[in-house]
Amino acid sequence: MASVNRIVIIGGNACGPKAAARARRCDPHARITIVEQGDYVSTATCGFPYYVSGVIAQKKSLFGRELDYFTNVFGVDVLTGTRAVAIDRRAHQVEIVNLKTNEKASLPYDKLVLATGSLPAVPNLPGKDLNGIFTMTRIGDALALRDLLANYERKQAAVVGAGLIGLEMAEALKVLGFEVTVIEALNWALPTLLDVEIAAQVEKHLRDKGVKVIFGQRVAGFEGDENNKVKRVMTKDGGFEAGLVLMALGVKPNVTLAREAGITIGKTGGIAVNEYLQTNDKDIYAGGDCVENVHLITKQKVLVPLGSTANKHGRVIGTNVTGGRETFPGVAGTAAIKVFDFNVARTGLSETQAREAGYEVVTSLVPNYDHATYYPGYKEITVKLIAEKKTGRLLGGQAVGPGDTAKRIDVVATAISFGASVDDLANTDLAYAPPYNSALDPLHSAANVIRNKRAGLAKSLTPMEVRAKLDGGDDFILLDVRTKKEWDEKRIEAPQVKFLPVQELRARLDELPKDAEIVVFCRSSVRAYQSQRILEGAGFKKVKFMDGSIAGWPYGVDVAKPS
Ligand SMILES: Cc1cc2nc3c(=O)[nH]c(=O)nc-3n(C[C@H](O)[C@H](O)[C@H](O)COP(=O)(O)OP(=O)(O)OC[C@H]3O[C@@H](n4cnc5c(N)ncnc54)[C@H](O)[C@@H]3O)c2cc1C
Prior knowledge:
- The chain has a five-stranded parallel beta sheet. Strands 9-16-10-11-12 form a five-stranded parallel beta sheet, covered by helices on one side.
- It is globular and about 90 Å long.
- By secondary structure, it is of the alpha/beta class.
- Bound molecules: flavin-adenine dinucleotide (FAD).
- Flavin-adenine dinucleotide (FAD) binds next to helix 1, helix 2, strand 4 and helix 8.
């Protein structure tokens, strides 16, 4: 009789349980054990901010499967409150300790799975251990914070870091009645995910919702009161009051156990794995936040700690530890986040990342609506696409606004996964009916803008480039071709701005000097691009339009309502 395959899985949250469930379905006879140091398995980590805010009312909603479900349905042994403290690779066993009784034991394995996740990155700042300073990583953090906030004085709260968790927690604290300040060392919101013009819309929305945002400043430390409770966040400019601080500076792979066992750690700091998610030890697999991934576009090793990836890893590992040979292709860095009433989504490389990776890029910035504007309930979204200039290959996409952005970004992620170009995307057969879309999806328009740019028809400047020209006092005409009604409602105030509606443009061409540099804008760039073509047809040589026009113009202060 063949011997039973003994599979030990260290880590029982996302990747680990998924690996266990898949392994069981592939091998009904394996002896599968999950070792988890916490008291629970399969918690809904991504729901923690919504539990803290009360949007998720019940604690029980955060718990996935009951422990006895693993035992009864999957036939998996789950050791909670048990930490794996060492791996003896030669003897093929894991040393474990029961955290309540301190009892030690050895677990023999044929295949071992490391699903140890990540740890919050907390710099060693003065005052970091004061009461009232939190991280949000484990279920215990979410439960403790919600309990604490039930009787907490609603005053100032600080969120350190404007990444995914930081902004979700900023919203949660604001919903709970705090005055919230977000402080971020880099220069814009979601800085590793978004380009500046998309992030600027997120920043404006945060400010509109009453969140204070400070970019480009590092926290220097924290000051406490006589009860050892945080009262002030220190910066080089002095700082600000905060009786509650949420540290959200990202996470780092939890690899101590692996490193001590001689498992190779990659340059990124994550466990190095091959396409089978196998480590340098053929009997040890690893997945989830603790490993590094291959980026689908650059083929470089990257850390992209997401629950979506951890679950896919778990399935691949479950197959492979039971004799299968499945590969994991890599990640595009697809992510979505709700920021108050905005839906933010992204995939692939940002423009910044693409340029850093050495690509010559062409981009589009297209404000649009999530479905037909003659059907009630349509909402704005702005889509940015990034493509390789030489080939038109899609490199990335970002979308922001109150409308449905995740659907668009999932299409871009799919396209990127199959190596599609903007030409492919422009004619992809996406569904249309008025409640769901326009006949041309915003993605089709965004792809066509890039095609027009690659064909030399469309020429543009980004809002940032226009802003720099205005600030620098450049000699050019910023031509507003909207209607008089739109002009009266709001406009960009600057000496270079000239108002000339597109309907009158052909008749009033002589009002514009032929040799002037002209940058045209409208509401969303459709009329601006049309005007660029009219002007070029009339012999104007230095004409461009502003990508995204007023709808993509993030500098609210410059958009003035008439008195
Ligand atoms: C607040 C928040 C919101 C998030 N929102 C999203 C989202 O919207 N979308 C998304 O895709 N991702 C999101 N994520 C990320 C997602 O939760 C993680 O990527 C995912 O949980 C990683 O799964 P994992 O199994 O690799 O690691 P983890 O979930 O970190 O689990 C690792 C487990 O291993 C255990 N462990 C570690 N060492 C040992 C040991 N030596 N012995 C025993 N047990 C051990 C830990 O206790 C832990 O339970 C969010 C994360 C947070 C914190």
